[in-house]
Amino acid sequence: MTTFDEVHALTHAGSLLSRHGEIVASYDLEATGSDASGFTSLHDARRDILCAVSTPFTANYAAARRVHLINAFGVTLGDSIIGLSALFAIKRHWPHLTFTIYRPAHAPGYVKRLYELAAPLVGGDVIDLPVPLASLPADEPKIDLGNHLFWPSFASMPMIDFFIRALGVDPLSVAPEDKRNRWLRDLALPLPARHAADAAYVLFCPNASTPVRSVPQAARGRIVARLWDEFGLPVYGFGAIDHPHYRDIAAHSRDTAEFIAWIGHACYLATPDTAALHIAAGFDVPTTAFFTTIGAALRSRDYANCHAVEFELSELQGIHASARAQDLRALERVYGAYDWRTMPIVMTARPFCRSPEMRAGVHRAPPPSR
Length: 370
Fold this sequence. Notes:
Layout: H1 6-11, E1 16-17, E2 22-24, H2 26-32, E3 40-41, H3 42-45, E4 49-50, E5 66-70, H4 77-93, E6 98-103, H5 109-122, E7 126-128, E8 131-132, E9 142-144, H6 159-166, H7 194-197, E10 202-204, H8 217-231, E11 235-237, E12 246-248, H9 256-265, E13 268-271, H10 274-282, E14 287-291, H11 297-300, E15 306-311, H12 325-337, E16 362-365
């Protein structure tokens, strides 16, 4: 077996095995600044651990009772929502299954909170890595999904199909309606703050997980104005924006459950944040979503109530994170050149929002003139 240097350990497509026989997530090594040398590939060490990035497989779930998912579904909220949607799609086909999920111990708290909320639905345990490899039962299926960001197919497949395939199932065998995150409705969620719970509102989530996918500050007021002009309803959001009909509700959205609830009760959503988009899809909240560094089809293909605005930024395609000044200047150019009065609105599911019905689809913004 190959022993990795630090660079290869952190970018290895799959989970790691330590010298002491423990399963380790490369994310935890990076998050803690730990020495990342001397690790080997988990799925090279144990051939009974299935890992689709090295050897594609078809899982025999009919014969299983409990399945062990190693380093599953990443450390972002959006990826985790879609990964859990893949899990629940499989449980709908094989309801007798339970899952034990092993997760990076140092994942952000708001992502951990999602797994706490979902645990009663998963029907199994969520366990922090590292764990001894020897503690995993030899006679139960074990699937490694570690470090999926570095799997080649993650950049080319719709995310839901990627995770279904990584779990050993043909994505074509799963109905589109089972790919729409409806399990979010079964979570134990609070109501939004009482002063807003009984009133219709539009929600604007301008921040994504990285600056290069977030709405530039200069465009935020124009988006709020477009939403107000369309709906005539108060626009709520996260962060300060100067507009007379906008309200910052960040102080009333202190954890993941409250964030999900605000989106689930909204009559409309505008956002570049795919986590917010995935949540809205689960509750059938119509959405206008903005895409800059990844194609809309890879994240919103199955969402009937989504209008996707794709900005032409070919030089940034495929970038998962960036705060580089030159990248943010390119982002500001395309947002600044867009005529926000033409921002598409789709309205099919929330009749108390004032809007003509429009067909969901993709609107490609032209590149700005240089």
